[in-house]
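Predict the 3D structure for this chain.
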Amino acid sequence: MQELIFSTISLAPNLGEYFREPVTEAIRGREVQASSATESYIVQLLSDFAKPQPETTSPLTQSVTLLLSEAMEQSGPERFKRLQTLGDGVLYGMGFFSQTSRGADRKYLARVGASAYDHAARMLRMGQGQQSGPDVLSELATKFEGFVEVLQYVADWVEAKSARDEEGLLRLYERWLKTKSPVLKNELGQRGMFGLDEGSGFGGIH
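Done. Predicted structure below.
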């Protein structure tokens, strides 16, 4: 399923423009207080993961505990890079693959992601490795779970846009049954689906 989503994203002529709309909608809808710099950071993060490099996806495939420990063993720019990459990866993973983490594991992942961003932000404030600028990483650290919800919204939005046939609509319906996402419910309604009350079953497609 994710391969279909990513293939749809890759067809977008401008990834920044593609992601800007759902990110803005999600931030407003979730009432997450986000600076324009942080909003732009999220858009760029999504664009990067749409065409990921091996180093950016390591938090999705390796132990985040080990990655955090290894990052803290480094110094200077290398430590900063690893911490930022870890924060980005955990944020993206929890947003786009939310159904694979539950309960205590989810809370732990959020703590690791927020901690990675917090350590990187402290390095910026101390003037290590990078020049100072908008305190984006601190904002991501302190509102980490809120931004996870923003990415979950974007993930649903992307999946809704990728459903181009009856099979795709069925996948959306099955995902909606698990998540009760209002984004998916709205998309299914616009596509002519009915029977969306819990327990009513799959109504059909007009």
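The two ends are 24 Å apart (CA to CA).
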